[in-house]
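Local shape tokens:
==================
===
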Amino acid sequence: MSNRPIETLNHEENLSAQQPAPEQDARVPNPDADDRRPERFEATPNQGPPQDFRVKGPNKARFDILFTNGKRASGASCKLTAAPGTGLIGIATSRKIGDKPDRNRQKRRFREAFRAIREDLRQDLDYIVVVSFKAVSIPYEATVGELKSLVRELNDRWDAVSESS
């Protein structure tokens, strides 16, 4: 502390009467700052799968109908069932795969595999794939190839049924 008397320390005669320029609000980020959170919580239009092909699944009642009335084909990592419908695709996973995140990961892989083979899918058939625990150890490219061959097999079998009737 200085040796000046207290009266001289409290004088405001040396302060400027001009107000300082308003500073940017602390809640508004700097324009050059990395903004990690989007302004909206919804996904931007360029995120997610292409709008022309979405994998939409059937409801529980339709699942049951597909399992009872559908034709089946089996592969190393999955079983595929198809029946006449509107082009829906259902994905079911075995609990042997693991916990919920592991099963969801396999669902995402198979959803992408269906997108990769969308030209082979028929709009007049509904498909259900039951993912086996063996799918965890199979590479994605092999999954796509297997799914493509199963879809073609079931399409041919449904074509044979429709030609014979």
